[in-house]
């Protein structure tokens, strides 16, 4: 690797031809996205058109929990799916699942089958395409090589993938114009333990749906002309942040390839300090890639709504329309996969690491969470009079209680070696889990607690040019319409902020699957709803429906109980850290401490009581998370050592030799060699320091690899290896500043930031 390789790549970027993609069209006119949407999905509409009515009715009842899927129905669905897939050039099918590694997995099976008949006693083998109901419903992958946290051993290899009937099958492109049929599935062990993220998400969604419906039935009277709510869904919208850099430059960075983040590299003179990238003009190559990503996702029924530049250079965001949480998680993982694959076609690399570049903002995956009925009512919609919307207030305080009682568990759900670089870094929420409601809702809760009327004007503001009245803002410009105002302002520093009709869980890492954080969120709020349900029943006595006073008594109780978790200010300040400590809110800065909270008696009993996790499954999650954390940091240490020895230190030696030869030559001529000697005096201690740091880091890495206890290994990685990595980086970044550019082999930040 040489400096010339960097130069060739940077100059070559501007000579590349633009990738051309033919947008689907009919008679020369582009098809509407609505016409393309879901064309590669075997959803309920396609199934209703292809299945006999009795079969489709049976399947619909199964989706609503009315009956199990029998063999006849499964065979009929499998046949219809096969015909549909073969019409679209499918050659293989796969059960697509989410093992415990923040990724997805698949094993492709061909539709090909052989049939043997006998003619005059001689065998005649015929090839044909088949797909049975049993092949649709389950498959048997090797479970021994996936993370299990000790629940399975290598010789206990059997595991099963089982079709998740609520998530429709879909087609993705294979090689040479072929297609592959994907069957969204859960993944369990031979004994039924959850070896994936999805099965527990399904359990948590079922639990919260059941208890939320019970609460709703206690507070809403039956009306003859209004259909009764039969099911409640968790809804989710996952805003996905990511970086894009030129793939050729990425290929010259061992740290990005191995670890997903730069382990060395100094900031350029201009990065994000001018605040001009956020919502700025999207670079042409990036916009083309985004457009193709959205096209491919539209075919898969993934409803991407927005796209824009994010705060940091080369950072972008895509956000979908809200969906049922289980489907939204599948669609988020599909989005990441499609982004990755399409970026390759544009010679780009998509980076999902939470902090790929030190010194600029990192990436999150903001999970916008709410509850909705099968009638389309959002239970977290405050309406214009939230103080008398008791249904809203009950579900609001349930959310607050969940966060209050299990904030440490929510922190554990977003913990990772990569997310530790982002959380609490003045760009993302800190390790203190609190909730933001906004001044108006905060006043509503305070008024109910204190038994007084709501002060309607407390949240209003008045300036010379802008007057806020009710829910509109009058801008005092005749040509501008009045601006509709949300119930709450936005608090970008809060980890759990109410944003109008939902809560935004902002601490989730961009790289991780949303399954585990949403499973935790569902569970803690379900647990809170159980307490509220029981208190309502006690307050009601023999009454069939809770009265206004019954509801207010319970609402007031939980307003008081959860008051400490509400915070309306700047979560980044040191004052909040001190205030949170006074309130008894845990400040969990590092992941190893967070992982331990999964096994606390309070959190463990909550999960097992709800039936979301068993104790062995929780133990396995703790071990998997701790082990992954440890390995991530060990990998960073080894990569940094290799980069120092193979690239950084040799570059410094080459530059030092040039300076030495120049100084010596000037001295022979009797000329002044002071400038060269000045740089030599700066270089030498840096070279010595880097060499010593590399040796020290290697010694600590050897020791780290010998630690067998998972707790001790994670702690050592966190408190010994990680600080050494950062200390070594500081020396390398100082060296990069003074080393002649022609000797520096690794692409620099300014090159990666400016080649889109």
TrEMBL record:
<dbReference type="InterPro" id="IPR022147">
    <property type="entry name" value="GSIII_N"/>
</dbReference>
<dbReference type="GO" id="GO:0004356">
    <property type="term" value="F:glutamine synthetase activity"/>
</dbReference>
<dbReference type="Pfam" id="PF12437">
    <property type="entry name" value="GSIII_N"/>
</dbReference>
<feature type="domain" description="GS catalytic">
    <location>
        <begin position="205"/>
        <end position="648"/>
    </location>
</feature>
<dbReference type="InterPro" id="IPR008147">
    <property type="entry name" value="Gln_synt_N"/>
</dbReference>
<dbReference type="InterPro" id="IPR052725">
    <property type="entry name" value="GS_Type-3"/>
</dbReference>
<dbReference type="GO" id="GO:0006542">
    <property type="term" value="P:glutamine biosynthetic process"/>
</dbReference>
<dbReference type="InterPro" id="IPR040577">
    <property type="entry name" value="Gln-synt_C"/>
</dbReference>
<feature type="domain" description="GS beta-grasp">
    <location>
        <begin position="91"/>
        <end position="192"/>
    </location>
</feature>
<dbReference type="InterPro" id="IPR008146">
    <property type="entry name" value="Gln_synth_cat_dom"/>
</dbReference>
<dbReference type="Pfam" id="PF00120">
    <property type="entry name" value="Gln-synt_C"/>
</dbReference>
<protein>
    <recommendedName>
        <fullName>Glutamine synthetase</fullName>
    </recommendedName>
</protein>
<comment type="similarity">
    <text>Belongs to the glutamine synthetase family.</text>
</comment>
<dbReference type="InterPro" id="IPR014746">
    <property type="entry name" value="Gln_synth/guanido_kin_cat_dom"/>
</dbReference>
<dbReference type="Pfam" id="PF18318">
    <property type="entry name" value="Gln-synt_C-ter"/>
</dbReference>
<dbReference type="InterPro" id="IPR027303">
    <property type="entry name" value="Gln_synth_gly_rich_site"/>
</dbReference>
């Amino acid at each position: 690797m040489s400096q010339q390789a960097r130069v060739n790549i940077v100059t070559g970027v501007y000579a590349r031809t633009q990738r051309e993609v033919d947008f689907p069209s009919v008679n020369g006119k582009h098809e509407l996205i609505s016409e393309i949407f879901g064309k590669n999905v075997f959803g309920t509409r396609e199934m209703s058109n292809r299945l006999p009515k009795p079969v489709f009715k049976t399947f619909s009842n199964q989706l609503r929990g009315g009956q199990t899927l029998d063999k006849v129905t499964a065979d009929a669905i499998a046949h219809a799916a096969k015909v549909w897939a073969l019409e679209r050039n499918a050659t293989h099918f796969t059960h697509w699942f989410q093992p415990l590694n923040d990724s997805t997995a698949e094993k492709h099976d061909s539709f090909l089958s052989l049939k043997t008949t006998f003619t005059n006693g001689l065998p005649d083998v015929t090839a044909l395409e088949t797909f049975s109901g049993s092949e649709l419903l389950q498959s048997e992958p090797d479970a021994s090589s996936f993370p299990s946290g000790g629940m399975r051993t290598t010789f206990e290899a059997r595991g099963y993938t089982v079709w998740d009937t609520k998530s429709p099958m879909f087609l993705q492109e294979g090689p040479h114009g072929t297609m592959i049929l994907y069957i969204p599935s859960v993944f369990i062990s031979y004994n039924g333990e959850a070896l994936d993220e999805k099965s527990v998400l399904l359990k948590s969604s079922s639990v919260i749906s059941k208890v939320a419906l019970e609460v709703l039935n206690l507070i809403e009277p039956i009306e003859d002309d209004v259909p009764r709510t039969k099911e409640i869904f968790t809804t989710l919208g996952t805003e996905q942040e990511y970086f894009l850099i030129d793939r050729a430059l990425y290929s010259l960075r061992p740290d990005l390839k191995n670890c997903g983040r730069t382990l060395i590299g100094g900031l350029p003179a201009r990065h994000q300090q001018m605040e001009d990238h956020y919502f700025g003009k999207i670079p042409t190559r990036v916009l083309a890639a985004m457009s193709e990503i959205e096209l491919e996702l539209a075919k898969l029924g993934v409803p991407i709504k927005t796209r824009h530049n994010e705060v940091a250079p080369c950072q972008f965001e895509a956000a979908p329309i809200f969906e049922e949480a289980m489907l939204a998680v599948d669609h988020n993982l599909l989005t990441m996969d499609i982004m990755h694959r399409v970026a390759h076609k544009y010679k780009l690399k998509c980076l999902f690491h939470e902090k790929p570049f030190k010194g600029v903002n990192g990436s999150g995956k903001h999970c916008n969470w709410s509850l909705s009925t099968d009638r389309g009512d959002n239970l977290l919609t405050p309406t214009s009079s939230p103080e008398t919307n008791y249904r809203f207030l009950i579900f609001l305080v349930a959310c607050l209680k969940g966060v209050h009682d299990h904030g440490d568990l929510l922190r554990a759900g977003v913990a990772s070696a990569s997310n530790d670089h982002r959380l609490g870094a003045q760009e993302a929420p800190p390790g203190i889990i609190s909730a933001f409601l906004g001044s108006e809702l905060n006043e509503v809760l305070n008024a109910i607690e204190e038994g007084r009327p709501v002060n309607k004007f407390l949240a209003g503001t008045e300036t010379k040019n802008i007057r806020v009245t009710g829910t509109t803002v009058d801008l005092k410009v005749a040509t501008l319409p009045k601006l509709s105002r949300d119930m709450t302002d936005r608090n970008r520093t809060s980890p759990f902020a109410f944003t109008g009709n939902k809560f935004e869980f902002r601490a989730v890492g961009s790289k991780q699957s949303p399954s585990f954080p949403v499973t935790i969120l569902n569970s803690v709020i379900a647990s809170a709803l159980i307490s509220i349900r029981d208190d309502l029943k006690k307050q009601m006595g023999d009454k069939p429906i809770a009265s206004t006073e019954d509801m207010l008594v319970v609402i007031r109780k939980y307003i008081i109980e959860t008051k400490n978790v509400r915070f309306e200010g700047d979560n980044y300040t040191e004052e909040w850290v001190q205030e949170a400590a006074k309130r008894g809110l845990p400040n969990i800065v590092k992941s190893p401490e967070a992982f331990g909270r999964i096994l606390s008696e309070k959190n463990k009993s909550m999960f097992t009581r709800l039936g979301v996790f068993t104790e062995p499954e929780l133990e396995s999650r703790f071990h998997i998370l701790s082990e992954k954390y440890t390995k991530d940091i060990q990998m960073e240490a080894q990569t940094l050592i290799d980069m120092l020895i193979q690239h950084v230190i040799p570059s410094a030696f080459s530059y030092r030799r040039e300076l030495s030869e120049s100084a010596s030559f000037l001295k022979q001529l009797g000329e002044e060699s002071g400038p060269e000697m000045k740089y030599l005096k700066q270089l030498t201690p840096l070279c010595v320091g880097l060499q010593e740091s590399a040796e020290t880091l290697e010694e600590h890495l050897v020791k780290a690899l010998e630690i067998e206890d998972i707790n001790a290994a994670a702690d050592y990685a966190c408190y010994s290896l990680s600080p050494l990595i950062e200390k070594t980086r500081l020396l390398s970044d100082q060296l990069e500043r003074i080393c002649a550019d022609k000797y520096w082999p690794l692409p620099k930040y300014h090159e990666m930031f400016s080649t889109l």
